[in-house]
């Protein structure tokens, strides 16, 4: 870490045992991502409110390269497990671990981006099924139950997105989902 770990206690005396646990969890963060620029942890013991116990609030602020800041604020007033500062600390650092792991995955490009289903056009319609032609010219069967929205509103030439299950039918590809895009293509004459 470029900047030393900062630990602040509000509404309570500093605790060497809690500080040691914070340092231990921060070290674990650095083992996962060794380019952490700074880390600040705030431990706050709010005043008593009515029947509620003394619930601890833990804030973890992590500075990363490029001016990226991750903030975890575990302020859950209804979570009575946070009457124990070690449980509140564990939950805050578990959340910080997840946020840091997500950040690293995004930087590496490990997060999957789902492509939209391919486009097709309705070719023919019958009473309870139809056929669409995909961009490669393949004819795909679909049943009325696969249509998102109203099967009755479909017309020949409507553009649709298809989720196709290959090998489901001996007769060829079958769409499990047919979602109209709202566009219509005029039939070639």
UniProtKB/TrEMBL annotation:
Transmembrane segments: none annotated. The keyword DNA-binding applies. Keywords: DNA-binding. The keyword DNA-binding applies. InterPro entries: NA-bd_OB-fold, RHF-like, RHF/RaiA. Pfam families: Ribosomal_S30AE. GO terms for molecular function: DNA binding. This is Cold-shock DNA-binding protein family. It comes from Tistlia consotensis USBA 355.
